[in-house]
């Protein structure tokens, strides 16, 4: 049986870290894969944070080895594992966000999770699914896009987008 890092998914080979690649003693820049979330800079703060959280949830569920071990504090309380390789949250305008998504989706070895704007305009998930089904792909607007892939590819995809202020 293949491990979670080599299994095929609907979008191609799974993206993730093999157990022997996880080094929580190394700086985040030493990790083979880079994780970025790009948010539409025109969104109000609450919607931007919501969009980033939603694509982060989808990414952490899909990318193997992304989260580190749980931390235990001095009082014995357990704190769930966080991304050991880091995650940068960047901003872009709507056109640049669409371009980031398109480049990442066509780049081998990259995982992409997106949050279409329609998700923030519905309160019932089934309504969101229905709205997406009726929206031509070229008309989908995005609130955020999460990308995990080889560091050099992700750097080329996001260019010099600024960190979210």
Radius of gyration: 17 Å
Secondary structure: helix percent = 25-40%
Unreliable segments (pLDDT under 50, ≥5 consecutive)? 1-11
Largest sheet: 4 strands, mixed
Overall description:
The chain has 165 residues and is α+β, with helices and mostly antiparallel strands. It has helices at 45-62, 94-105, 125-134, 151-158; strands spanning 8-9, 12-13, 33-40, 71-72, 78-79, 88-92, 111-116, 142-150. The strands form three sheets. The protein has a four-stranded mixed sheet with strand order 6-3-8-7, sandwiched between helices. It has a two-stranded antiparallel sheet with strand order 1-2. Strands 4-5 form a two-stranded antiparallel ribbon. Strand 4 (71-72) and strand 5 (78-79) form a beta hairpin. The longest helix is centred in the first third of the chain and has 18 residues, at 45-62. It is globular and about 50 Å long.
